[in-house]
Predict the 3D structure of the following.
Amino acid sequence: MTTLGIIGAGHIGSQVARVAVANGYDVVIANSRGPETLADLVAELGPQATAATAADAAAAGDAVVVTVPLHAIDRLPVEQLAGKIVLDTNNYYHERDGHIEELDKGETTTSELLQRRLPTSRIAKAFNHIYSSAITTDGTPAGTPDRRALATAGDDAEAVAFATRFYDEAGFDTVNIGPLSESWRVERDRPAYVTRQNAEELEANLAIANRLP
């Protein structure tokens, strides 16, 4: 059985945890306030879920979802995430994160910043362009007409394959944007951001995205 570590137990992290448990994963989840503050969520998720520190969640996961604010990635446990597949849900909100010149100028992406922080981790973009509430409500079985699609991007084929499989288990088709350097196409203020779209529509929205808003 696969264990999914989740660092960040906010809106996205808690919803991903629900999807993971529903699909048979063991979940080890952490937040910035301590495992004891996750008692209610873990009780809801049931015996497949455990609360832990970020380092322990990273170490326990066969794959790990990192869903923390961009300004907090410097506190991620690098050693415990070494070599792991990491799903990155982040977006850049300068109102929250402060202005980051590289991002303002379109010189890098949030996922590339995470890769810089986690140099040996295998990163794929995931779940960053869907309202968190829809993660557990919009999924449908494979082959459903007009099935909702979500995008991923990554430089590592195994990470992209895991994101694709997990999307399918959650009820979504996948559109692969390509490398992490192209992940800006699905971030804030672009046509594909938080829009319900099937695979064909998502591909079209990715194609018309502008690098700078």
